[in-house]
Amino acid sequence: MILLRRYGTLLALALIVLVFTIASPNAFGSMSNLVNITQQMALLAIVAIGATLVMVLGEFDLSVSAVVSWAGIAAAALFAAGIAVPIVMIVVLVSAVAMGAISGFLVARYKVPSFIATLAFGTVIGGLTFWVSNGATLFSGIPAGFRDLGRGTLAGVPVPTLWLIGVAVVFWLLLDQTEFGRRLYAIGGNREAACLVGLPVRRDMVVAFALCAALAGLAGLLLTARLGSAHPTGGGGYLLQAYAAVFLGMTAFREGEPSVPGTLVGAAIIAVVSNGLTILGVPSFLQDLLTGAIILAAVLVRNFGRDEAAA
Amino acid sequence: MRAGILGLALAGLMASTAGAFAADVAVLTPYQSSVATNQMINVFQDKAKAAGWNATVVDTRGDMGQLASRIEDVVAAKVAAIVLVSVDPTQIQDQVNAAAAAGIPVVTIDGAKAPGVVLNVTSDNFELGTKLSDFLFGKLGGKGNIVKFFYSAHPGVHQRELALDEALKKYPDIKVVADHYVVVPGPVDDARKTTENWLKSQGDQIDAVWAAWDEPAIGAQLAVEADKPDSKIIIAGIDGNPQAVELIKACSHIKGTVSQDFDAMAGLAAEGLTEILAGKTPAKAEVYAPAKLITPETLGVTCP
Amino acid sequence: MTSTSFLALGGLVKHFGATKALDSADLALSAGSVHALVGENGAGKSTLIKTLSGLYQPDAGTIRLDGADIAIDGPRAAEALGFRFIHQELNLVPHFDAVGNAWIGRHHPRRGPFIDRRAMRAKVAEVAARIAPDLPLDRPAARLTPGQRQMAEIVRALMEPCRLVVMDEPTSSLSEGEAERLHAIVRQLSAEGCAVLFISHRLDEVLDLCDSYTVLRNGRTVGFGAVADTSRAGLVAMMSGAGSGNAATPHPPAAPSTSPDGRGEKPVLATDLAFGPGDSRFTFQARPGEIVGLYGLVGSGRSSLLKTIWGATPGRGLIAINGQVPRQGPAGRIKAGVAYVPEDRRREGLANSLSIERNLSLAHLSDFRAFASLPVPARSKIRQFAKATGARLRLVAAGPDRSPATLSGGNQQKLLFGRWLGRPIRVLLVDEPTRGVDVGAKTEIHGEMRRIAADGAAILMATSDIEELLTLSTRVLVLHAGRLVAELDGPSLTRAAVVAAAFGHAPDEQWLPSERSA
Question: In sequence order, what are the beta bridge partners of C269?
Fold first, then answer.
């Protein structure tokens, strides 16, 4: 029982994969499909890892989807103006970092609840995105060289998967193996204690929000590269799914704390369920129903375990 | 315990979907909640059932990234054919190419021509837009102020907007005094609220409402009916949406809709797909369904 | 003071508004000594510590370290001076283990850019081996026992060389065995040359563990010296001021007039609760017209006892109101005619988003219905009630529709009483009736309480203000570490007796609670 509580979410992922493989050994269980799932979950997982940073602080960033859309549109607009790929990427990422820093500053300095601050600021970003794009889908002038950053394979591994591996390793190290990461967990765990021992609470919060937005920006760039087009609400689907992944991940390891490996498991569950059910030909409304039920079940089992531990 | 719940749920789902050996046709769209798209999907599903295909519908609610992933999934599932509804295949070109490479035919309804697409059944959106503009401008006698509802994200709807721009060049006395990018989903209510605001701020100047499709036209009608029922504002849209047709019949402010024949489009797509699945190549890669103007006159109603 | 002292605070003064928290407080510490800081509630101990930790800046006075005047302008500065603080509310990150907690706010050992977990653990293990070898280093703080958490805090304090460890009530939440462990650690620290400033209400502990002491009363240092030269009675005398010519305590008011000996009527409140450590029980009765004081030091369980009687926290045992057992929870108590004035008016008492009149009507909204059968309160009835109550309490407010936040502390406190006035009160539970209230309002509130009692209610009043206790109470119950240790009335009710009982000092048989069968 303890094992199930401790690693239940991981077991659930394994079980879901197993059930789908038995149900559809040739399509779902094929190596190429399993590899493809890692590509499909890549962008979601990158956004969710950013959200994890903020969740570690005990805060929310609801502007992630707006930043994803913004990054895609901003990149496409700059490409249309004939600007070179590296410059576009840098400009877009810097703009995303600035957006995150503003959110973080509002939360850390002026103590605006992060829920409200990022909801409002995300709406501002959404407006900016529509303004720049005129509401249209942009797909002209995106160079093939840029598109290859989000599609194709390298040594048999899909390129988005490689991005995900890189991001996951870097941010796992950052959160788990550096003083900065320890400080974030300390701030999230007991903010008063963190202040009492003189941690740079404000600065760290701003940095965490900025990194979260940077990852959302990266995901937006990769989305545009993958699709070859940028839609002004292209990131809309990421918000809820990213937090679902983080919450699922919180039930996966540790003392219910957000973590990068946990978030990866969460994102994988979401991606596998969508992929598997589509392959089995299940209508999409049933997919939503099941994804929601899985999240609820995971959280319920965790709380159930908690009561037991307390008794 | 958690695993048990999941296992049960999955087993149940699988049981419900097993036992299908007919040709699997995957129908994918980002806009199933839109009335016209929904209508096309429903008609296509009926035709598919009659043809003995096993059609499943996937809706990604406006999310193109999701749509790309779901196309990859059905390619992996080796379906017999993919039908894309109300989406421009060039926005997901890589996935369409992958389907083509896997030997899976891709048919689009209300989409666009693109590499890897075997057949596109659509209306000529530019023609629809031109028809709407000409009708509306004729009603105004070539002179007046209009407001416009548009949605540039959909390439087909965007074509209609371009047709309006073209038509405006021919009618120098027609002025666009306000425009609004319709929020989807929820276009009716969005258009209603916007129109209310316009009526309050510049209600006397507006002679007509140009709506890129019928749902914003219906929203505009709701606002006019509530706030300025006696005005002479004329509203017109595109699609031949049943609710809009009813409103035309009832002598509302909606005086016309350019009907895309969605049933015909879905039917033509099903016919084309039958040929394709039989191993033949369709005669034309793009088929236009006929468009017609619906007005009180064509409906046989006389309005005061 | 003594010439061997390395740290000397002289003549510290600190005001908070009109109240003087520190009024010429002195303290001198010699290296390696274990120094007790004792005093009643509100004597200024916490303020003194916070001044030392840099959280407060004194209004006047000096802090001398090694003979030089210094200013401590923040927690980091105090830390740099080698001062460590173990606060009463522990400051651990719940999901970090002892190792992680010990390193918060310090420069972690690193390998390249990454933290070196092995080195971190080794360093903490080294410190822990010295003072708490059995502390589990890999378990999250949330799952440690209170004693282990205390150890983790101490380990964290000792990670770097320190000169002074301040412990604020470190043993109040510890078991006997855990406290013993802590004492051993304190002695070891002292042997290693680190001074310990030990704040405790347990006088046995102080006499046993400390070698010198300072007594604060009303923000002023009233005594200091070597523990060997004093006694429990001596400390109690200094804390209560009994020895300093201040022996004339206010007279306890006469027993209620309704019954000359207070026993003629049936008790309106009777409890027999399992409360406190072990199998101790809280058994007592109160009669109409009585004001029973409940005294005890911080952490003695006064507030939780009141909350248990009020039904807000579940308890085991029997409570009878007017001879009947009320239904569960506060709603059942209200129905039975009980009223409750909580300790923290801002957090537990008033809804600042509602108007004054709405706050007044909150507790018994159903009395204000426009139609008896419909749960719709009538505004006019509420306003009428607010007007009458405001007049009775002499409420000073800009208007009944303003937020209670616009009121002074005293008027806010009056509101808490006022909300119960619309209906007959049989039992009134009051937790700190006049904390942070000016003198005028205090008198008015005391008057109101007497009036409520005269109207036939029994009042159980917890207070940490001993003057208030002695002014109002006809009878005083004293709690010590959750246990009812004394019941004082008539001639036995003196300031010295109350303080002595509260500090667990009971040399005289008469202070033991008398056994009465319910």
Answer: C286, C321
Residue B13 lies in a domain: no
Structure tokens of C100?
């992680």
Domain that includes residue B87, residue range: 21-122+262-289
Would you call A8 and B2 a contact, using CB atoms and an 8 Å cutoff?
A: yes
Residues B46 and B96 in one domain: yes
Residue-averaged pLDDT of chain C: 83
Q: What is the 3-class SS of A117-141, one letter each residue?
A: HHHHHHHHHHHHHHHHHCCCCECCC
ipTM, two decimals = 0.80
DSSP state of C347: I
**Burial (CB count within 10 angstroms: exposed 0-12, middle 13-18, buried 19+), residue C266:** exposed
* pLDDT by residue, tens only, chain A of 311 residues: 556 666 778 888 898 999 999 998 888 888 888 888 998 899 999 999 999 999 999 999 999 999 999 999 999 999 999 999 999 999 999 999 999 999 999 999 998 999 999 999 999 999 999 889 877 778 778 898 998 998 888 888 999 999 999 999 999 999 988 989 999 999 998 888 887 777 889 999 999 999 999 999 999 999 999 888 888 888 888 998 999 999 998 887 756 789 999 999 999 999 999 888 888 888 777 878 888 888 888 777 766 655 444 43
Q: Which of A137, A278, A293 sits opposite B91 (nearest CB)?
A: A137
Are residues B76 and B135 both part of a single domain? no
Question: What is the set of domains in chain C, with CATH numbers?
Answer: 5-82+162-244 (3.40.50.300), 93-160 (no CATH), 252-337+424-518 (3.40.50.300), 356-423 (no CATH)
Which chains does B contact via 3+ CB–CB distances below 8 A? A
Chain C residues within 8 A of A198 when measuring between CB atoms: 74-76, 79, 105
Instruction: Among A137, A282, A301, select the one facing B153 at the smallest CB separation.
Output: A137
Nearest to C53 by CA among C121, C7, C99: C7
Check A130 against B181: CB less than 8 A apart. yes
What was the pLDDT predicted at C27?
Answer: 92
Residues B72, B103, single domain; the answer is yes
A191, A192, A193, A197 alpha-carbon torsion, rounded to 10°:
100
Indicate whether B31 belongs to any domain.
yes
The amino acid at B174: I
Asked if residue A57 lies in contact with residue A184, where contact means CB atoms within 8 angstroms, the answer is yes
Contact residues, chain A, for C109 at CB < 8 Å: none
B192-207 confidence digits (pLDDT tens)? 888 988 888 888 889 9
Residues B190 and B275 in one domain: no
| Chains A and B touch each other (3 or more Cβ pairs < 8 A) | yes
Residue that wins the pLDDT comparison between B2 and C355: C355
Of A182, A192, A255, Cβ closest to residue C140: A255
pLDDT (tens digit, 9 = 90+) per residue, B14-55?
Answer: 444 444 457 899 999 998 888 889 989 999 999 999 999 999
Instruction: Choose, out of A196, A199, A257, A302, the residue to mutate when testing the contact with C (most C CBs < 10 Å).
Output: A196
Mutate to test the interface with B, among A18, A19, A32 (most CBs of B within 10 A): A19
CB pairs under 8 A between A and B: 146
Q: Are B97 and B142 contained in the same domain? A: no
Q: What is the pLDDT of residue A191?
A: 85
Chain A residue with CA closest to B11: the answer is: A19
Would residue C209 be called left, alpha or beta, if left means φ above 0 and alpha means ψ between -120 and 50 degrees? alpha
CATH of domain A11-310: 1.10.3470.10
Q: What is the CATH number of the domain that holds B48?
A: 3.40.50.2300
Q: Chain A residues with CB inside 8 Å of B20's CB?
A: 281
pTM over 0.90: no
Contact criterion met (CB < 8 Å) for A274 and B69: yes
B244 and B271 share one domain? no
Q: Is the peptide bond before C288 cis (omega within 30 degrees of 0)?
A: no
Taking an 8 Å cut-off on Cβ atoms, the answer to whether A199 and C115 are in contact is no
CB A93 within 8 Å of CB A265:
no
